[in-house]
């Protein structure tokens, strides 16, 4: 895994935005997904894994019960990917992992916990277009048909119908990572510029998968001594909980953090 260690704000910006130039159109057009973690060595494990050792039908039962009780509120589409996106967005443990297109949103999540300011943070930067090059030809054809290098939930449903079809890839020793855009169901998911990743096994860790494919990713380490500067500059740029979590809860969280005194050290 290629690790980039940051020393100053300008280095950070260079690392976050590097390799986004597209010479074919002469524009900066990123094909990277970003994820920020408050502590640099946190594993990229999904919500199901963080519950502890799951029993075999845990994922199936969680989704079944969510659909049972949420049905009146979630009626836009009835694909499994739509249900999973809604469930993940509202905090249900799933095999999905949250990412963002925005390096500054990822920076926010890497500096959102003041109690962790004594430890280095990290921003994961993964090239989802190159990750999708590892897919089978029939899946790639769907992407090309939609004229994209990332899946929408509609394109994903046409390519990989449901979790069973995805899990079958793992059963056939074909491990991939699929990145897709969730439906724009509310301001939070829009403002966070969100996307999700999913893997064929609910027990697979993204960081371990990336260790075997180091050309796809960078882990940008933000030293603890730089966190306050980064946090203050993000607040000045209006990258805050008040914007990323619209509503009174986000407002209160922002105010609590923003007015917290800087601790010695």
Structure explained in plain terms:
The mean pLDDT is 92. With 265 residues, the chain is an alpha+beta fold. The radius of gyration is 19 Å and the shape is globular. A four-stranded mixed β-sheet has the order 1-10-6-4. The chain has a four-stranded mixed β-sheet with strand order 5-9-8-7. It has helices spanning 9-17, 47-50, 58-70, 80-89, 103-110, 128-132, 137-145, 153-159, 163-171, 187-191, 206-211, 227-236, 241-244, 248-258; strands at residues 2-5, 21-22, 27-28, 32-37, 97-100, 121-127, 151-152, 178-181, 194-198, 217-222. Helix content is 42%, strand content 16%. A hairpin with a 4-residue loop joins β2 (21-22) and β3 (27-28).
Q: What class would the helix/strand composition place it in? A: alpha+beta
| Percent helix | 40-55%
Order of helices and strands: EHEEEHHHEHEHHEHHEHEHEHHH
Strand content: 15-25%
Which keywords apply here?
single chain, 265 residues, alpha+beta, 4-stranded mixed beta sheet, 10 strands, 42% helix, globular
Q: Nutshell version of this structure?
A:
The chain is an alpha+beta fold.
SSE topology sketch:
Elements lengths: L1 E4 L3 H9 L3 E2 L4 E2 L3 E6 L9 H4 L7 H13 L9 H10 L7 E4 L2 H8 L10 E7 H5 L4 H9 L5 E2 H7 L3 H9 L6 E4 L5 H5 L2 E5 L7 H6 L5 E6 L4 H10 L4 H4 L3 H11 L7
Parallel strand pairs: 1-10, 7-8
Antiparallel strand pairs: 2-3, 4-6, 5-9, 6-10, 8-9
């Amino acid at each position: 895994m290629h690790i980039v260690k940051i020393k100053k704000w300008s280095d950070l910006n260079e690392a976050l935005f590097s390799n986004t130039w597209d010479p074919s159109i002469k524009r900066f057009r990123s094909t990277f997904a970003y994820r920020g973690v408050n502590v640099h060595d946190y594993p990229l494990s999904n919500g199901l894994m963080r519950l502890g050792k799951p029993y075999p039908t845990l994922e199936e039962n969680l989704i079944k019960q969510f659909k049972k009780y949420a049905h009146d509120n979630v009626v836009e589409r009835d694909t499994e990917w739509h249900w999973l996106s809604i469930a993940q967005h509202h905090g249900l443990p799933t095999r999905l992992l949250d990412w963002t297109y925005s390096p500054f949103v990822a920076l926010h999540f890497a500096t959102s916990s003041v109690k962790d300011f004594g430890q280095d943070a990290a921003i994961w930067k993964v090239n989802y277009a190159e990750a999708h090059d590892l897919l089978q030809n029939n899946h790639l054809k769907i992407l090309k048909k939609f004229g994209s290098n990332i899946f929408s939930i509609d394109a994903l449903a046409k390519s990989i119908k449901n979790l069973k079809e995805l899990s079958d890839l793992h059963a056939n020793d074909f491990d991939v990572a699929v990145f897709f855009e969730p439906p724009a169901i509310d301001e939070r998911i829009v403002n966070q510029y969100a996307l999700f990743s999913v893997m064929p096994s609910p027990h697979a860790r993204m960081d371990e998968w990336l260790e075997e494919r180091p050309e796809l990713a960078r882990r940008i380490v933000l030293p603890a001594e730089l966190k306050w500067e980064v946090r203050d500059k993000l607040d000045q740029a209006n990258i805050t909980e008040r914007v990323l979590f619209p509503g009174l809860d986000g407002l209160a969280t922002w105010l609590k953090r923003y007015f917290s005194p800087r601790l010695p050290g």
